[in-house]
Design a protein that fits this description.
Blueprint: E1 3-7, H1 12-23, E2 27-32, H2 41-45, E3 53-56, H3 62-72, E4 76-79, H4 86-91, H5 93-114, E5 119-125, H6 149-168, E6 172-177, E7 180-181, H7 190-202, E8 209-211, E9 217-218, E10 221-222, H8 223-233, E11 242-244, E12 250-251, H9 252-262, E13 272-274, H10 292-298, H11 306-322
């Protein structure tokens, strides 16, 4: 039985990946910080909270990483832990850099020194591209131009992952994932903020949703589809870096229209107020990925459409609120 260690297991991607690996008959371990109130709600939502083995550890504490790696001796390590909210990275750039950048380096160093046979997956991000594009798309050859402390910290981790592969012969792969959402996405992210807000308005629990730039465009997919791509990357003979995306771009306005219309509200604009606090200091206008390499080499492509995804999220929030 293969063993996998997932950092960030209580987050959206960690929970979906744990479910996916358990269905592949993996022994799944989750690295979790020792804090007073641990939140296992995402794992509970997917019905797997009692199927995962938890080990105490923190990306900022190398001693705890050494203990985890030496104890588990995993076949695969998926580094999904991060300060993952772009907005927060402007307010807390040092914490963001410590966790996302140096934390990844500490984990890579631990694997190199104590269990170098483990295959390593790094959760990179399309935010590293900024507004740069090749023929209107971002792919594995597009130049990086990060536009936030979050993206810069992730770019550090990306190049460290490449460097450990090239310098020490380790199996290290970067997944450059575009925006991916689900019913368990954090409410600080705009997609979940909208699905939750629409559900509250439909049920008479709220009267408005405060947003920033409605014209921002993103390539949105379903997290449940994207975790399969993470796993496929570690099943290859050689480690490589892959862009994972849908190849389609949608605006916040489109997202709002689909979500509101799904609950029978057409005049959605009267429920939206623009709050300058939610606009970025350096705006990232549009992200559209090109997943040709993932399709050709991994045999991967997304299954759930954008419209199906948004409707699923709204339905899940309606169900939660009704309970």
């Amino acid at each position: 039985m293969k063993k996998a260690l997932i950092t960030g297991i209580t987050g959206q991607d960690g929970a979906y990946l744990a479910k996916f690996l358990l269905e592949k008959n993996y022994k799944v371990y989750g690295l979790i910080r020792r804090i007073v109130n641990r939140d296992f709600s995402n794992l509970e939502y997917l019905g797997i909270a009692n199927k995962v083995d938890f080990v105490d550890g923190d990306l900022t504490d190398e001693a705890s990483l050494i203990n985890a790696i030496k104890t588990i001796r995993p076949d695969e390590v998926y580094n999904l832990a991060a300060q993952s909210f772009v907005g927060t990275s402007w307010d807390q750039p040092l914490v963001t850099s410590e966790i996302n950048g140096l934390g990844t380096l500490k984990l890579l160093n631990t694997i190199k020194n104590h269990w170098p046979s483990a295959k390593f997956y790094q959760a990179a991000t399309s935010e590293m591209f900024g507004n740069s594009a090749t023929d209107g798309f971002q792919d594995e050859n597009t130049p990086f131009h990060p536009r936030s402390p979050y993206a810069i910290s992730k770019l550090f981790a990306y190049w460290m992952t490449v460097n450990f592969k090239e310098s020490f012969g380790m199996f290290c792969a970067n997944g450059i994932l575009f925006n991916h959402e689900s019913p368990i996405r954090g409410k600080e992210f705009v997609t979940r903020k909208i699905s939750d807000g629409v559900a509250k308005i439909k049920l008479g629990l709220a009267t408005e949703i405060k947003l920033g730039n409605l014209d921002a465009q993103r390539d949105w997919g379903f997290a449940g589809d994207y975790v399969e791509a993470m796993w496929l990357m570690l099943q290859q003979e050689e480690a490589d870096n892959f862009v994972i995306c849908t190849g389609q771009t949608h605006s916040i306005r489109e997202l709002l229209a689909i979500a509101f219309q799904h609950v029978g509200i057409d005049d959605w604009d009267k429920y939206i107020s623009i709050d300058p606090r939610f606009k970025r200091p350096a705006e990232l206008h549009a992200l559209t990925g090109k997943n040709t390499k993932a399709k050709n080499i991994l045999g991967w492509e997304p299954k759930l459409s954008f419209e199906e995804l948004i409707k699923m999220m709204v339905d899940a929030d309606l169900e939660r609120l009704k309970k």
